[in-house]
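Below is how a single chain appears once it has passed through the pipeline. First comes the sequence as given, then the structure the pipeline wrote out for it. We keep one example in the README because the format questions we get most often are answered faster by looking than by reading.
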Amino acid sequence: MCQNHWLLAIYINLLKLFNVTKADVISQIADKTGIDKADVSVTVEAFFNVVKNSMADGENIYVRGFGSFINKKRAKKIARNISKNTAIVIDEHYVPSFKPSKVFVNKIKGSSKVG
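Resulting structure:
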């Protein structure tokens, strides 16, 4: 049983090497700015809520130097339910999307740590 906990701890640490969670972002912002983590958490949550609510209202959000949160229109189409062998009509709808800015893309392309 003890060995399983050890393996789980290694797995979690490996995941953290390649993925950053919202909690990690909040910690990094708090460390770099000196602002309390609770205040940073409230601010980050407020930002995400503004993005979600604005996009739900049909608005796009443009952040210069970072990217755009946009609603992409998906056309009406006919799909197949292969288990029942029937056609399904999928109505026109919108899906949220993120388009990084050129500055963002160039930053990633120039990074030696990605890949």
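The chain has two domains: 22-59, 60-115.

See the next section for the split statistics.
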